[in-house]
Amino acid sequence: METVEKIRQLMADDLQPQEKVLYGTRGMRFGEVRKAMIGGALGIAGAAAAAAVAATSKRAAVPGTSIHVPKRFYFGLTNQRLLVFASGGALVAKPRELLLTYSYDQVAWITDELIPGVAQAYRVSIGIVDTGVLNLEFARLQVADARPMVSRVRSDMPKD
Questions:
Q1: Torsion-angle region of 31 (φ positive above 0: left; ψ -120 to 50: alpha; else: beta)
Q2: Phi, psi for 47 (deg, rounded to 5)
Q3: pTM
Q4: How far apart are the C-alpha atoms of 47 and 10, rounded to whole Å?
Protein backbone atom coordinates (compact mmCIF):
# COMPACT_ATOMS: atom_id res chain seq x y z
CA MET A 1 0.00 0.00 0.00
CA GLU A 2 1.41 3.38 -0.92
CA THR A 3 2.39 5.85 1.81
CA VAL A 4 -0.35 8.38 0.99
CA GLU A 5 -3.01 5.73 1.48
CA LYS A 6 -1.45 4.62 4.77
CA ILE A 7 -1.54 8.22 6.00
CA ARG A 8 -5.16 8.61 4.84
CA GLN A 9 -6.17 5.57 6.84
CA LEU A 10 -4.25 6.69 9.92
CA MET A 11 -5.71 10.22 9.75
CA ALA A 12 -9.27 9.21 8.80
CA ASP A 13 -10.76 10.54 12.06
CA ASP A 14 -8.45 13.56 12.37
CA LEU A 15 -8.78 15.27 9.00
CA GLN A 16 -10.58 18.61 8.95
CA PRO A 17 -13.57 19.15 6.65
CA GLN A 18 -12.37 19.41 3.04
CA GLU A 19 -8.84 18.31 4.07
CA LYS A 20 -7.16 15.80 1.76
CA VAL A 21 -3.87 13.93 2.09
CA LEU A 22 -1.78 14.86 -0.95
CA TYR A 23 1.72 13.49 -0.35
CA GLY A 24 3.62 11.19 1.94
CA THR A 25 7.08 9.66 2.10
CA ARG A 26 9.71 8.40 4.50
CA GLY A 27 12.23 10.86 5.86
CA MET A 28 15.20 11.07 8.19
CA ARG A 29 16.77 13.54 10.55
CA PHE A 30 19.67 15.60 9.09
CA GLY A 31 22.76 13.39 8.72
CA GLU A 32 20.97 10.04 8.93
CA VAL A 33 21.09 9.29 5.19
CA ARG A 34 24.88 9.31 5.13
CA LYS A 35 25.06 7.32 8.38
CA ALA A 36 22.72 4.72 6.91
CA MET A 37 24.54 4.56 3.56
CA ILE A 38 28.23 4.77 4.45
CA GLY A 39 28.42 4.77 8.22
CA GLY A 40 29.98 8.23 8.53
CA ALA A 41 28.80 11.22 10.53
CA LEU A 42 27.47 14.20 8.61
CA GLY A 43 28.26 17.75 9.68
CA ILE A 44 25.76 20.29 10.88
CA ALA A 45 26.38 22.73 8.03
CA GLY A 46 22.80 22.37 6.80
CA ALA A 47 21.38 23.27 10.21
CA ALA A 48 23.73 26.24 10.43
CA ALA A 49 22.63 27.43 6.98
CA ALA A 50 19.00 27.11 8.02
CA ALA A 51 19.70 29.16 11.14
CA ALA A 52 21.33 31.84 8.95
CA VAL A 53 18.23 31.96 6.77
CA ALA A 54 16.11 32.31 9.90
CA ALA A 55 18.22 35.22 11.10
CA THR A 56 17.83 37.10 7.81
CA SER A 57 14.25 36.11 7.03
CA LYS A 58 11.58 38.77 6.80
CA ARG A 59 9.64 36.68 9.28
CA ALA A 60 12.31 36.62 11.98
CA ALA A 61 9.86 35.07 14.44
CA VAL A 62 11.48 31.68 13.74
CA PRO A 63 13.87 30.64 16.52
CA GLY A 64 17.14 29.17 15.21
CA THR A 65 16.66 25.99 17.23
CA SER A 66 16.03 22.69 15.50
CA ILE A 67 12.67 21.00 16.07
CA HIS A 68 13.27 17.45 17.27
CA VAL A 69 12.24 14.67 14.91
CA PRO A 70 13.05 10.96 15.27
CA LYS A 71 15.92 9.44 13.27
CA ARG A 72 13.37 7.96 10.87
CA PHE A 73 9.84 9.21 10.34
CA TYR A 74 7.12 9.75 7.78
CA PHE A 75 6.42 13.20 6.37
CA GLY A 76 3.06 14.01 4.86
CA LEU A 77 1.17 16.94 3.41
CA THR A 78 -2.49 17.67 3.22
CA ASN A 79 -4.00 20.61 1.43
CA GLN A 80 -4.00 22.41 4.83
CA ARG A 81 -0.94 21.31 6.82
CA LEU A 82 2.39 19.50 7.18
CA LEU A 83 2.47 16.25 9.16
CA VAL A 84 5.30 14.28 10.83
CA PHE A 85 4.61 10.72 11.98
CA ALA A 86 6.60 8.21 14.00
CA SER A 87 7.75 5.25 11.91
CA GLY A 88 6.70 1.83 13.12
CA GLY A 89 5.90 -1.70 12.06
CA ALA A 90 7.44 -5.05 12.88
CA LEU A 91 8.22 -6.19 9.34
CA VAL A 92 7.25 -3.28 7.10
CA ALA A 93 7.77 0.33 8.12
CA LYS A 94 4.66 2.49 8.10
CA PRO A 95 3.44 5.75 9.62
CA ARG A 96 2.28 5.34 13.20
CA GLU A 97 1.58 8.11 15.69
CA LEU A 98 1.18 11.74 14.56
CA LEU A 99 4.04 13.65 16.21
CA LEU A 100 3.93 17.15 14.69
CA THR A 101 1.50 19.15 12.63
CA TYR A 102 1.86 22.69 11.28
CA SER A 103 -0.55 24.66 9.14
CA TYR A 104 0.83 26.40 6.05
CA ASP A 105 0.36 29.81 7.67
CA GLN A 106 2.95 28.80 10.30
CA VAL A 107 5.62 28.31 7.61
CA ALA A 108 7.93 31.33 7.40
CA TRP A 109 10.47 30.00 4.88
CA ILE A 110 11.80 26.85 3.28
CA THR A 111 15.22 25.91 1.91
CA ASP A 112 16.24 22.78 0.04
CA GLU A 113 19.43 21.28 -1.33
CA LEU A 114 20.25 18.09 -3.20
CA ILE A 115 23.43 16.47 -1.83
CA PRO A 116 25.02 14.39 -4.63
CA GLY A 117 27.05 11.21 -4.32
CA VAL A 118 26.62 7.64 -3.19
CA ALA A 119 24.67 8.78 -0.14
CA GLN A 120 22.50 11.18 -2.14
CA ALA A 121 20.16 13.13 0.09
CA TYR A 122 17.60 15.86 -0.40
CA ARG A 123 17.83 18.22 2.58
CA VAL A 124 14.94 20.44 3.49
CA SER A 125 14.72 23.04 6.26
CA ILE A 126 11.37 24.59 7.09
CA GLY A 127 11.15 27.62 9.38
CA ILE A 128 8.10 27.38 11.65
CA VAL A 129 7.01 30.68 13.20
CA ASP A 130 7.52 30.86 17.00
CA THR A 131 8.69 27.22 17.05
CA GLY A 132 11.98 26.55 15.27
CA VAL A 133 13.44 24.87 12.21
CA LEU A 134 12.20 21.53 10.94
CA ASN A 135 15.30 19.86 9.41
CA LEU A 136 14.41 16.92 7.18
CA GLU A 137 16.42 14.68 4.91
CA PHE A 138 15.20 12.32 2.21
CA ALA A 139 17.25 9.43 0.81
CA ARG A 140 17.79 8.80 -2.90
CA LEU A 141 14.65 6.68 -3.29
CA GLN A 142 12.45 9.35 -1.66
CA VAL A 143 13.79 12.37 -3.59
CA ALA A 144 11.20 12.00 -6.37
CA ASP A 145 8.41 12.11 -3.77
CA ALA A 146 9.95 14.84 -1.60
CA ARG A 147 10.59 17.46 -4.29
CA PRO A 148 6.91 17.95 -5.26
CA MET A 149 6.07 18.12 -1.54
CA VAL A 150 8.53 20.98 -1.08
CA SER A 151 7.12 22.76 -4.13
CA ARG A 152 3.63 22.42 -2.68
CA VAL A 153 4.71 23.87 0.68
CA ARG A 154 6.37 26.79 -1.13
CA SER A 155 3.25 27.53 -3.15
CA ASP A 156 0.89 27.27 -0.15
CA MET A 157 2.91 29.14 2.48
CA PRO A 158 2.05 32.80 3.15
CA LYS A 159 3.74 35.35 0.96
CA ASP A 160 5.41 38.31 2.68
A1: left
A2: -65, -35
A3: 0.81
A4: 31
